């Protein structure tokens, strides 16, 4: 049996935390190693420079230390044949005046040398230092740092795994409690809603006239309530699978939403109507989610439109790729500065009245954005508001 989606996410989170800890530890070891290598290299170069300066100062009468050769115009030390390519006559041009010093590092016959050219009282001396053993020391340091890096990485992976488990454990407990709640709520909510829907259907079959129409609305309302509860329970499951998308006729949903709010609008003396062409307005989405979007927009409009006002739901096709739906009311409106803030959760208005916009519009934007669409609001205080929803068209075929 494959693990649940939230289990996969938790497992991925543990590995991410472990990898992050390992990366941080590896970087720290690498930085420390680079600093150690830099200090060693700088110290070796300083030692070589001091050694060459001392050799030139003592002159060819004193045997230089190992790996050092000294050349003056009249002699060289130590005795015996010098390495091939030494001395280098063209280096004398770098020290034309007494007191001039030139230090350089160069590879000769595959070996790296540090050499110092110094003009002492008009006499130019060249001293060469072979870095054979220094290079070996640096190679040993690099090898040791590589071993330390590998050991540190293994230790970081082990400790990171332990720390990740401890860090994720509270979240695992929370998800476990959430799953228990979802299971209990599913049983406690679905059963009474099913009974309510069934009884409403029986009453609708027995009724006639206006009572039958109202009971049909009640049946539709209980079905929609069951769908809402079902979607909320599914969304409560962390990291649940995305619902499958369907072809949705947005015009039909708009007419159903307006019909469901017709009685409320009539009681509030608000004219409520749909304006659309008799053509398909097909989008791809989740019907229950889009139905809640329309319900929330109408609820918002009805809540802010005084008696005698009107609400219009308009559908159109602005271009070949989109379907547009507008909910326009003649209500109290809001300041233009709040056009974006009203989609924030529990945001307050900027006109000083302390008005809160609640949660509905924030959820509307989340649903619309999840469908790859956009929603925008435009209004002026006292002149009503217009909410424009735009979704990608779908091929009805």
Automatic annotation (TrEMBL):
GO terms for molecular function: kinase activity. It comes from the Bacteria. InterPro entries: BphY/WalK/GraS-like (IPR050351), HATPase_C_sf (IPR036890), HATPase_dom (IPR003594), His_kinase_dom (IPR005467), HisK_dim/P_dom (IPR003661), HisK_dim/P_sf (IPR036097), Sig_transdc_His_kin-like_C (IPR004358). Keywords: ATP-binding, Kinase, Membrane, Nucleotide-binding, Phosphoprotein, Transferase, Transmembrane, Transmembrane helix, Two-component regulatory system. Residues 184-395 form the Histidine kinase domain. The keyword Transferase applies. Its main location: membrane. It catalyses: ATP + protein L-histidine = ADP + protein N-phospho-L-histidine. Its EC number is 2.7.13.3. The chain crosses the membrane at residues 21-40. SUPFAM superfamilies: ATPase domain of HSP90 chaperone/DNA topoisomerase II/histidine kinase (SSF55874), Homodimeric domain of signal transducing histidine kinase (SSF47384). It is found in: Cell membrane. Gene3D superfamilies: 1.10.287.130, Histidine kinase-like ATPase, C-terminal domain. This is Sensor-like histidine kinase SenX3.
